[in-house]
């Protein structure tokens, strides 16, 4: 089993409002569209500059490909699965553009139209995505420790 942190593309309320009002003609709108409907190379550098990635979950699965299946809301919400630590207020199904950080090797991938591909970008971008993954791991460990202390 391998531990992964999943980061969702999650604009803030203000960013979401800007996108709704201005459409995809702004840099923010273009970046959001690029992440969620990729037709070319995704610009992760801009996504990180806009702070569009937020921790969504931490889970142990045999392979990165299993993260996609585990984070689908099919028969029930994935947040009801006790083996997955839900870190988001809106546990939607995993989608294109979302990030998966291997918490053991620190490798960073994104959910592509088919499968997962390595994230490319400036070293600062990769470091920021890794830091968000580490923050997810810290929150996960904190929650587990708190649960154990309450027992």
Give descriptors for this structure.
151 residues; alpha+beta; 6-stranded antiparallel sheet; 6 strands; globular
List the helices and strands and how they pair.
Layout: E1 2-9, H1 13-22, H2 27-36, H3 44-49, E2 53-61, H4 65-70, E3 84-86, E4 99-102, E5 108-111, E6 116-118, H5 123-150
Antiparallel strand pairs: 1-2, 1-4, 2-3, 4-5, 5-6
Unreliable sequence segments: none
The helix/strand order is: EHHHEHEEEEH
Question: Helix amount, in percent?
Answer: 25-40%
- Strand line-up of the largest beta sheet: 3-2-1-4-5-6
- Termini gap: 26 Å
Number of helices: 5
Largest sheet: 6 strands, antiparallel
Task: Explain the overall architecture.
With 151 residues, this protein is α+β, with helices and mostly antiparallel strands. It has one domain. Strands 3-2-1-4-5-6 form a six-stranded antiparallel β-sheet. A hairpin with a 4-residue loop joins strand 5 and strand 6. The longest helix is centred in the last third of the chain and has 28 residues.
Summarize the structure.
This protein has helices at about 15-20, 25-35, 45-50, 65-70, 125-150, and strands at about 1-10, 55-60, 85, 100, 110, 115-120.
């Amino acid at each position: 089993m391998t531990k992964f942190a999943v980061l969702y593309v999650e604009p803030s309320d203000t960013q979401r409002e800007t996108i709704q009002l201005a459409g995809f003609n702004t840099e923010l709108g273009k970046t959001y569209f690029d992440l969620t409907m990729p037709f070319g190379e995704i610009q992760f550098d801009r996504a990180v500059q806009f702070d569009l990635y937020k921790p969504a979950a931490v889970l142990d699965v045999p392979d990165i490909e299993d993260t996609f299946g585990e984070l689908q809301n099919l028969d029930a919400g994935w947040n009801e699965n006790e083996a997955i630590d839900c870190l988001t207020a809106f546990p939607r199904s995993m989608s294109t553009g979302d990030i998966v950080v291997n918490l053991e090797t620190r490798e960073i991938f994104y959910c592509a139209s088919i499968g997962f591909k390595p994230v490319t970008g400036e070293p600062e971008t990769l470091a920021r995505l890794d830091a968000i993954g580490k923050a997810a791991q810290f929150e996960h460990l904190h929650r587990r420790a708190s649960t154990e202390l309450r027992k």
